[in-house]
Design a protein that fits this description.
Layout: H1 2-20, H2 28-41, E1 44-52, E2 55-64, E3 71-76, E4 83-86, E5 91-94, H3 102-109, H4 118-123, E6 127-137, E7 140-149, E8 156-162, E9 168-174, E10 180-186, E11 190-191, E12 209-212, E13 226-228, E14 236-244, E15 250-257, E16 262-269, E17 277-281, E18 284-291, E19 294-300, H5 304-312, E20 314-316
Antiparallel strand pairs: 1-2, 1-10, 1-11, 2-3, 3-4, 4-5, 5-12, 6-7, 7-8, 8-9, 9-10, 13-20, 14-15, 15-16, 16-19, 17-18, 18-19
Length: 322
């Protein structure tokens, strides 16, 4: 009988081996590479839900990989009309009639983060990246990736990558206690080869349309009149611009990035009722104070202590004392 037991064990080995060897877990770099490929080749659409605290927004997102007329289109499906159409060289956005453009800033930058393989090396010192498991998002198998902050200067991030196509299905911003601060998730996700986007004009009222500045308008050549010294660890100047206000005064806009989180610092003339201290601007935190009779506001999806640092250590550049 011993030989029969041995035969049964031998025959059972392939089944046991199959059960004990689950699907190989990809690396973070492999998932980011697959995401880059999907961004170039994949057309898809689906409803997206965005939640920040008790605020819930829903959108329809369409992305076309057509080499000529491709791009991304987003329209709100609840509340005031909000639309965004992004091509390679421009972004056009229809703002709500009530003037509330907080969520529309997310439309301009993209509902979901624009990740690529270069972000991994840049953020390795400030975030710990790892693939933490597999689950389902939008009724599709998806790999979970976490970028955990190594210090208290930034929040952590959770990303969900479609296991088949590589597209980003969701993003969760995590607090210092690793609790969700905001979530952006596809509810349904459908790949469509011949997906078409709206033409160059949007569906909303034309007088509400605005041409949104894209990243190309923020320059790095030369030196801005203002700088932050010292910069919080991991952050670097990503670009700046000087805008002329309707009253002839000027506003400086400086954008800093640690590779995942962007912080924007605005420097403008003092208002009659200046913004001072911390305040909540929807998806982002903000901190304002007066410096040299100027209004300084720092905002971004980072802890308030980080925004306070940007605002407090803003100084006039020696070469540009204006």
């Amino acid at each position: 009988m011993n030989w029969m037991l041995a035969l049964l064990l031998l025959l059972g080995q392939p089944v046991l081996a199959q059960q004990q060897n689950p699907e190989a877990r990809p690396t973070v770099l492999q998932l980011l590479g697959k995401l880059e490929d999907a961004r170039l080749r994949l057309s898809y659409q689906g409803p997206v839900v965005f939640q920040h605290k008790n605020r819930l927004e829903t959108f329809l997102l369409r992305r076309s990989a057509d080499p000529v007329e491709g791009g991304e289109y987003v329209i709100s499906t609840n509340g005031p009309l909000r639309e965004m159409l992004r091509r390679d060289q421009w972004v056009r956005c229809v703002l709500p009639e009530n003037g509330d453009s907080l969520v529309d800033a997310r439309l301009i930058n993209g509902l979901l983060p624009q990740l690529d393989t270069s972000v991994l090396e840049r953020t390795r010192a400030t975030y710990q990246w790892r693939v933490t498991g597999k689950n389902r998002v939008a009724n599709r198998p998806a790999w979970q990736v976490r970028a955990m902050a190594r210090d208290a200067l930034r929040f952590s991030h959770e990303y969900w990558f479609d296991a088949q196509w590589g597209s980003l299905l969701g993003h969760v911003l995590l607090s210092e206690k690793h609790e969700p601060l905001e979530q952006t998730l596809f509810v349904d996700f459908k790949v469509e080869e011949n997906l078409k986007l709206p033409p160059g004009h949007l569906l909303g009222k034309q007088h509400l349309s605005v041409q949104a500045a894209n990243e190309a308008t923020l320059k790095l050549e030369g030196h801005p009149a203002w700088q932050v010294q010292p910069l919080p660890a991991g952050f670097a100047l990503a670009g700046y611009q000087k805008l002329k206000l309707p009253d002839g005064e000027h506003q400086w806009q400086l954008r800093f990035s640690d590779g995942l989180a962007d912080v924007t610092v605005y420097v403008e003339p003092r208002a009659e009722q200046p913004l001072q201290g911390s305040f909540d601007m929807g998806p982002v935190n903000a901190f304002g104070q007066l410096k040299n009779d100027r209004q300084v506001v720092a905002m971004g999806p980072v802890p308030l202590a980080t925004l306070r640092h940007f605002s407090t250590y803003l100084i006039k550049a020696a070469a540009n004392p204006q």
